[in-house]
């Protein structure tokens, strides 16, 4: 019997041998890939599926074409090699779109407070809880150092940036004003210098305060009715600027070479006057003053961009201002981008869907600015979808990113994403967005999806801080007692482009 069927001999035996070799090679490659998956991930549906499919292909075609394969060894061998290459390419493509966990920090003890802020440097990930600041080495997740506020104080403020291995931590006891500042050496985890405001009586009694900032070599701290500049190296007093009679210093933020402070005057000859000051951090001189459309003294602010200056203003009143104000070099408001539009709401200050700020002491904004565009998640009330069938109830989320021009406030593009945004950042000109089970890389110019990485069982159900360092993605969670560890490092199994 020369063919697979007695009455139907193979008319093209070499082609049949080649095709069968391809299928058998593919089956062999699938078996090898399944073994690798079992070693890397343990038992999983993809691995079992690959073994079953490989067994069916290999056993069926070997039995069916055994004579043809035996008589045309070279054709079968070539097909076998092609099949192995095809299977290997499929495996690499599958794993290149998968993100694996490189390391994860141990869970916080049950009942531990949520993190209130985080920093990342090329070597460290620093996560701050109210009671403890912990630095993890980004290479292997080992704890480099820990630091606790003195006495029974808790962390109530953090500088938005670090500089030359230094970060600023504000701390206070209970409901007292956030009046003490510690300059934290991020290399050693020690206090380089400390400063305590001598007259904090006019401070607001918010549990968290944006009361300090780091502008390169200058530290700026809130001081009574104004702001004080200190040397970041040793804490020496350099200058002081007064916010005005009966005015409170509500907010400060800075980057090297520039600082923004907000003062609010609730009474007096100019009642309910609120201004944003652009300060020269070297001298404390007020470069520009901008009147803000704000009446409440509990308004939340965030610097979304330093150049151009884009300031988030979030009043809590029903008819209060909730918008991003783009301020030009003369102090004039050039563009106003409201958070509410006719078809969606922009999440600017928080990823928590209308909730409080993510990471209270050092808020993690939901919006980023790149290439002159404000890019933020846009949400709608009907984004949450519930479906019920014989298998039970399933919940899914629709989502989108919206790009608004800082120049004229016009919408440039909308990019749909499959889920809620849980983390967002910009790295090397690309926009990175973490969803529940996906990590997306987008072109910020047009919202085009460049790459989609799947996290599979590494779910992210709550907002996190996302940082990208080369091919490593660092994720810091607020709640370190839940399913997401306090800090984890992710990396694609294969980098193919």
Describe this structure in words.
The protein is of the alpha+beta class and 497 residues long. It has four helices and 35 strands. The protein has helices at 13-41, 45-64, 66-71, 73-96; strands spanning 99-104, 117-120, 124-128, 133-137, 143-147, 154-158, 166-172, 180-185, 190-196, 212-215, 218-223, 226-231, 237-242, 248-255, 258-265, 273-279, 286-291, 300-306, 309-314, 322-327, 333-338, 345-346, 368-370, 373-379, 384-389, 392-397, 399-405, 411-417, 423-427, 430-434, 438-442, 449-454, 464-469, 472-477, 487-492. β4 and β5 (143-147) form a beta hairpin.
Please state the structural category. alpha+beta
Helix content: 10-25%
Quaternary structure state of the chains depicted? single chain
Number of alpha- plus pi-helical segments? 4
Low-confidence stretches: 1-11
User: pLDDT average, as an integer?
Assistant: 83
Instruction: Report the end-to-end length measured between terminal Cα atoms.
Output: 50 Å
């Amino acid at each position: 019997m020369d063919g697979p069927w007695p009455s139907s001999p193979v008319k093209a035996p070499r082609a049949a041998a080649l095709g069968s070799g391809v299928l058998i090679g593919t089956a062999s490659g699938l078996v090898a890939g399944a073994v690798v998956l079992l070693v890397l991930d343990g038992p999983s549906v993809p691995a079992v599926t690959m073994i079953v499919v490989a067994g069916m292909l290999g056993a069926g075609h070997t039995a069916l074409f055994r004579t043809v394969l035996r008589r045309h060894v070279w054709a079968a061998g070539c097909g076998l090699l092609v099949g192995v290459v095809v299977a290997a390419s499929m495996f690499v493509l599958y794993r290149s779109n998968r993100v694996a966990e490189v390391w994860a920090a141990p869970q916080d003890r049950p009942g531990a407070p949520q993190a209130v802020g985080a920093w990342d440097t090329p070597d460290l990930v620093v996560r701050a809880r109210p009671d403890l600041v912990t630095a993890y080495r980004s290479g292997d997740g080992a704890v480099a150092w820990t630091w606790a506020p003195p006495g029974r104080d808790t962390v109530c403020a953090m500088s938005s940036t670090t500089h030359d291995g230094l970060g600023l931590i504000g701390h206070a006891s209970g409901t007292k004003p956030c009046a003490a500042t510690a300059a934290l050496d991020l290399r050693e985890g020690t206090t380089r210098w400390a400063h305590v405001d001598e007259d904090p009586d006019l401070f607001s009694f918010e549990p968290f305060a944006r009361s300090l900032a780091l502008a390169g070599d200058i530290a700026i701290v809130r001081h009574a009715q104004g702001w004080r500049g200190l040397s970041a190296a040793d804490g020496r007093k350099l200058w002081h600027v007064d916010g005005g009679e009966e005015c409170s210093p509500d907010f400060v933020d800075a980057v090297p070479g520039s600082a923004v402070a907000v003062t609010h005057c609730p009474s007096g000859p100019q009642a309910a006057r609120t201004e944003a000051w652009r300060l020269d951090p070297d001298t404390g001189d007020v470069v520009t003053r901008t009147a803000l459309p704000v009446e409440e003294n509990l308004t939340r602010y965030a610097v979304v961009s330093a150049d151009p200056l884009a300031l988030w203003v979030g009043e809590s009143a029903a008819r209060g201002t909730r918008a991003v104000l783009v301020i030009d070099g003369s102090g004039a408001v050039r563009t106003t981008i409201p958070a509410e539009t006719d078809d969606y709401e922009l999440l600017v200050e928080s990823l928590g869907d209308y909730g409080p700020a993510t990471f209270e002491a050092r808020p993690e904004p939901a919006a980023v600015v790149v290439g002159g565009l404000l890019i933020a998640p846009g949400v709608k009330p009907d984004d949450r979808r519930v479906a019920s069938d014989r298998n039970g109830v399933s919940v899914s989320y629709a989502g989108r990113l919206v790009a608004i021009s800082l120049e004229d406030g016009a919408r440039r593009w909308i990019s749909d994403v499959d889920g809620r945004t849980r983390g967002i950042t910009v790295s090397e000109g690309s926009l990175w967005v973490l969803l529940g089970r996906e990590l997306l890389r987008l072109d910020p110019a047009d919202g085009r999806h460049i790459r989609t990485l799947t996290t599979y069982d590494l779910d992210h159900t709550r907002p996190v801080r996302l940082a990208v360092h080369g091919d490593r993605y660092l994720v810091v969670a607020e709640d370190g007692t839940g399913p997401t560890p306090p800090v984890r490092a992710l990396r694609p199994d294969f980098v193919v482009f």
